[in-house]
Amino acid sequence: MRDDLTDPQSHLRDFIVANFYIPDGQPLDEVTSFLDAGIIDSTGVLELVAHVESRYGITIADHELIPSNFDSIGALARFIQRKRGGDGGSNDRLAR
């Protein structure tokens, strides 16, 4: 069993399928663009950010809200892994 905290792709896919409209026949692999495929709009990005911050205990700065971090399952998983292992943890973890 995979740990979604260290390998988040499977969890992210499940969250997106459960919370956003995926058109019939629309592939959802690690490189499918959420924006190009019409899966997530700007409001959906905010919902996704809130979920990722809560689930993975990271804080996402405004300047990090760019397509290279949030436009596919693979990009988002890599971003989460960078943030969780990233810059020594300063300000990355939320107080619990």
Low-confidence stretches: 87-96
Structural class: mainly alpha
- List the domain count as a whole number: 1
Distance between the termini: 26 Å
Query: What do the pLDDT scores average to?
Result: 85
In CATH, the homologous superfamily goes by the name ACP-like
Provide the CATH top-level class.
Mainly Alpha
As for the CATH topology, it is Non-ribosomal Peptide Synthetase Peptidyl Carrier Protein, Chain A
Q: Compute the number of strand runs.
A: 0
Helix content: 40-55%
Largest sheet: none
Q: Number of helical runs?
A: 4
What proportion of the residues form beta strands (DSSP E)?
Answer: under 5%
General form: globular
Gyration radius, rounded:
13 Å
Written as H for each helix and E for each strand, in order along the chain, the element string is HHHH
CATH architecture: Orthogonal Bundle
List the helices and strands and how they pair.
Elements: H1 9-19, H2 42-56, H3 67-70, H4 73-85
List keywords for this structure.
96 residues, mainly alpha, Non-ribosomal Peptide Synthetase Peptidyl Carrier Protein, Chain A, 0% strand
Written account of the structure:
This protein has a single domain (9-84), classed as Non-ribosomal Peptide Synthetase Peptidyl Carrier Protein, Chain A. It is globular. The protein has 96 residues and is mostly helical. The protein contains 4 helices and no strands.
